[in-house]
Write a structure and sequence with these properties.
The structure holds two protein chains of two kinds.
Chain A: E1 5-14, E2 23-33, H1 38-51, E3 74-75, E4 78-79, E5 101-105, E6 114-116, E7 119-120, H2 123-130, H3 152-162, H4 169-173, H5 180-191, H6 200-213, H7 224-228, H8 236-249
Helix pairs in contact in A: 2-6, 3-5, 5-6, 5-8, 6-8
Chain B: H1 2-8, H2 11-36, H3 43-54, H4 57-87, H5 104-107, H6 109-127, H7 137-146, H8 148-175, H9 184-212
Classes of the chains: A alpha+beta, B mainly alpha.
């Protein structure tokens, strides 16, 4: 199967460290193989920019196999692009047509300040985890694996929530820049397992408070997060977080 | 009491306030619709219903106070949420597309809410704060809807109410944590049917008056 190539016009958000007032710059991306991933396409454009003496486009990336949560940008108004359950690194150029104009913007949220170009500081998500997204156990000899029985259904549900890679697409896609899907997934995957039960109340309260303090918006059940999540995490995780919060706050 | 205020002012606390007060309005508007159905049975039946209602007067007064309280909480929390959410994304996207989660109801929630508030104030002045010795509620309706402008305002307003309910109904269950894959499709469907019933049920009163009376 021979590879096809396409020509694209890119409009990329450029913003340097010193000057927060950025702008959309237009670049041509010519002879892009449709087998490339979106990030590989930016790599090629960056090589051309470097040759022309223009500063390459800064973007976050790491594993490039859709599991690390490092990459992400808003492509034509959609977080991680228009394909469902796909990270930006797994979005392939065959989903674009020759002559397309692609607008690439960073995640936009007050809690995610832009560092440079498409790179944003998602440290706020780490701070939510630090507020309670862990369990406390005494160190010592490891227990035998099956001493604590976990119903299969709960294990599956916890795993679905734990699939969150913390990429921040939910915040980027939320009309209110709310981090409820992320926090809901983190609270849920611990609340569903026996190891998470002892700290469940403290966790729900402190993670929700941290989320507010970091400047994320409020959830209004728009469900855009669920539609954009590259790991297909459902807003039922937000409902579970609401239940956990009600249990913790009013009992 | 401190712990209560602290918890209710979190992002989840505020959505609980919106959900619980919203549930109150869902209950109210349902009773209101059922009451309005008396209109179709003519003046006597309708006035008899009004009379029966006013026999419960002390209770009605308490209910009105509760509704006023719910409205104050719902409107002030909603306004706060609107401005907080604007602040949460100071730089907007140049291109913004929906991934398919939003509905026309959810998208317009703060705006339909605002217009419903204005409408409720107008509605109270036209039907509630009237001199009952001069005019029966039945006559008030016939007079108001005799004016084509008011009839249209009321029809548009109940459509906005229906849009608000289309998102608000299922949303309040989600906010209260009652989202289960077994029940949510049913809740969603009931919400849409309820919204349509509200729009049709209320909008037909002015149409009926103009056409028949």
């Amino acid at each position: 199967m021979s590879s096809k190539t396409i020509n694209l016009t890119l409009k990329v958000w450029r913003q340097n460290r010193k000057n927060p007032a950025g702008d959309l710059e237009t670049y041509q991306a010519n002879d892009i193989s449709t087998d490339m991933s979106f990030l590989e396409m930016i790599d090629v454009v960056n090589e051309q920019l470097t040759e022309q003496g223009i500063e390459p486009i800064a973007f976050d990336h790491d594993c490039r196999e859709g599991i690390c949560g490092m990459c992400g940008a808003v492509v034509n108004g959609r977080a991680h692009g228009h394909m469902p359950e796909t990270t930006l690194c797994q979005l392939h150029m065959r989903h674009f047509k020759d002559g397309n104009t692609i607008v690439i913007e960073p995640w936009r949220a007050t809690a995610f300040p832009v560092v440079k170009d498409l790179v944003v500081d998602r440290g706020a998500l780490d701070k939510i985890i630090q507020a309670g997204g862990y369990i406390s156990v005494n160190a010592g000899g490891a227990q035998d694996g099956n001493t604590i029985p976990v119903p299969k259904e709960n294990a599956e549900k916890a795993f679905n929530a734990a699939a969150c890679i913390g990429c921040g697409a939910c915040v980027a896609a939320c009309p209110n820049a709310s981090a409820m899907l992320f926090t809901g997934a983190k609270i849920s995957h611990l609340a569903l397992l026996p190891q998470g039960k002892p700290g469940a109340k403290r966790r729900a309260l402190s993670m929700v408070r941290a989320m507010d303090e970091l400047g994320f918006g409020n959830c209004s059940n728009e469900a855009e997060c669920e539609a954009e999540c590259p790991k297909g995490i459902s807003i039922t995780e937000i409902a579970r977080m609401n239940r956990e919060f009600i249990k913790a706050a009013f009992s | 009491m401190n712990w209560f205020i602290e918890n209710i002012s979190t992002a989840i606390g505020k959505k609980l306030l919106m959900a619980v007060t919203g549930l109150g309005f869902v209950g109210f508007i349902f009773v209101h619709l059922v009451g309005n159905l008396n209109f179709y049975f003519g003046k006597e039946v309708f006035l008899k219903y009004v009379e029966t209602l006013h026999k419960l007067d002390p209770l009605i007064f308490v209910a009105e106070l509760v509704l006023l309280g719910l409205a104050v909480i719902h409107v002030s929390t909603g306004t706060l949420l609107f401005f907080q959410n604007l602040r949460a994304r100071k730089t907007r996207y140049a291109v913004n597309k929906s991934a398919g989660g939003r509905t026309i109801g959810s998208r317009t929630m703060p705006y339909t809410g605002f217009f419903i508030l204005l409408f409720v104030i107008l509605h109270l002045f036209q039907f509630h704060f009237i001199d009952r010795s001069q005019m029966t509620p039945y006559d008030a309706a016939v007079n108001t809807f005799g004016n084509i402008g008011f009839a249209l305002v009321y029809i548009v307003a109940v459509i906005l109410v229906a849009l608000h309910i289309r998102h608000g109904f299922w949303s309040l269950f989600q906010s209260l944590g009652l989202n289960h894959e077994k029940y949510m499709p049913l809740i969603q469907t009931v919400g849409i049917i309820f919204a349509v019933a509200i729009a049709v049920g209320f909008a037909f009163v002015p149409i009926y008056i103009r056409a028949v009376i």
